[in-house]
Write the structure tokens for this entry.
Amino acid sequence: MEDADTGSAHSVSRPALVVLGSGTAVPRRDRGTSCYIVAAGDAAFLIDLGPGALHRAACAGYDLDALDAILVTHIHPDHCTDLISLQFALRNPGPRAGREPLGVWGHSSVEDQARRFREAFPGWLDAPPGRWDFHAVTPQAGSLWHGTLPGGHRLVAGCVAHHASSVGYRLELREGPIVAFSGDATEGGDLVELARGADVFVLEAAGSDRDPIEGHLTPRRAGALARAAGVGRLVLTHFYPDVLNDPIAAQARETFEGPITLAQDGWVHPLMS
Ligand SMILES: [Zn+2]
Ligand SMILES: [Zn+2]
């Protein structure tokens, strides 16, 4: 890893990126399923919630009361399965009592998936009305979607070539920093435009050159996308076990000249524009 800041997530007050899941659905002691938090001012946004993500977020100081929005990149299990835990938890009287609904942002397929989870556990995931609500992001090919998150932070979404439900996100924080998330991705869609000039680009590099995974990037290809987008820092993530045998940063360095970080669970990175 290069330029790592290994500070604790518990004391974040400045804008920061917190990595809570740099792995995949393949269980590993050191890397959980996809999950990140962007903390800005008094707001905290959680990006993707694979299995166990909400527990990891609580361990890092971000329980359900501390979250202001949840953004879902797509409906593959390693990115959205904790929508089950979320709906189950919100049946209880404790979390977010008296608060505004917790907003979940995503492609309309995310709302459909949440409903399918409720149908799979009849009666057990029916949170009372007003505990959470859904906000559809609707980017079109060649046209980014623009919205606003709680606290007045700007949210931009764009089409990503991976799955029909895939969107990437660009958070333009009120304090200035811009951080972009690919979710799972390969070349195409509007990913480069979405990440254009971002201070930090959290980009997947799931597969190796030796055994690339369909619908995913490799470190060299991720570096090329980061260069095309002209980002300030490239944060590589979503490592399947095979690629972890490779010199990931060195491979990305062949195609991207700027700072490169390999995401690690628990890593906290200050966001500065
Ligand atoms: Zn996926
Ligand atoms: Zn994935």
Summary: Residues 9-266 form a domain with the Metallo-beta-lactamase; Chain A fold (CATH 3.60.15.10). Confidence is low (pLDDT under 50) at residues 1-8.
